Amino acid sequence: MSLIWDSDDSLPATMPLSLFNGGPAPTALKDFYLWGIPVDLGPMHLLKLSFLQLIIASNVMMQDILSVLRNCPTLLKLQLEHLECLRVPEESIEAPILLESLITCAFHLPIPLIRFLLLAIQTSSLHQLKLSCDFEDYIPTPPLFASPITSFGPTLPRLISTAKPINIRFDDSNSASITFGTLQIPLNPLGPGAFLYLRDVLDSLMGYIGERGNDLTVHLDLDAVDPTMEELQIFNKSPMVGELTVREKIWSDLFQ
User: Fold this and answer.
1) 124 against 208, higher pLDDT
2) Alpha-carbon distance 76 to 62, whole Å?
3) Bridge partners, residue 3, by sequence
4) Which whole-number Å values give the CA distances from 114 to 21, 62, 184, in the listed order?
């Protein structure tokens, strides 16, 4: 059983809806998808979901998300985007939530929330992770993958081990992304520290992959932007940069 509710225009956050007459959701419900709908998740007592997708869903609180995750250990896909009422709880989680079946996970949230959720879950089957970060919310301390990401740390090497090569791309829509194996990190909108941010992410991930990182190269695609020399210097000391694309020209030897 699936519930899919997509609103063309986000409803006011002051009008949370109570589904299923304010009572628990049917136990047969496996796929739960809301876009632009303010809801009260608490009374639904969602159990054993396979797919949870909440996008621009006002009124969703962090305790609601954590409760659903605890009650859905067989969750296969998780997507959380633009949830304006989410806040990092003052108290840390005593033990990570085990999601052994989770295969795909995508967050588009401020970095502090992404870090908290990565700390909150533990998964051994994840194949694809997408972390979309609003650059204006980026706080240099701590970086996205700075220690400790204790519970999620063992998952990162598996995700990034398939990297051939690492791709960092800046495009003409005021955004950038780093693709490292099956880990993708889009960045939008760009800010004055975007180059340094991506270099920090790259350095952090290399710490998880260990010696195998010595055989990897980075393709830095700047075809859609006009970087300054100062920005280029951020990657100049990286021995992994093996190819640079700038305005339809490839300069493979620039960093040698």
Assistant:
1) 124
2) 20
3) 32
4) 32, 12, 14
Q: What is the pLDDT of residues 128-185, one digit of tens each?
A: 999 988 765 555 545 677 666 656 767 888 888 878 788 888 877 778 888 988 999 8
Are residues 47 and 27 in contact, defined by beta-carbon separation less than 8 angstroms?
Answer: yes
Residue keyed to tokens 């210097």 = 233
CB within 8 Å of 111: residues ≥ 6 apart: 133, 137, 138, 139, 144
- How high is the pLDDT of residue 104? 96
Task: Quote the CA–CA distance of 113 and 213 in Å, as a whole number.
Answer: 28
CA-closest candidate to residue 151, choices 109, 116, 201, 113? 116
Give the helix ranges, DSSP H, for the chain: 62-71, 111-120, 155-160, 194-209, 229-236
Query: Position of tokens 């992304």?
Result: 177
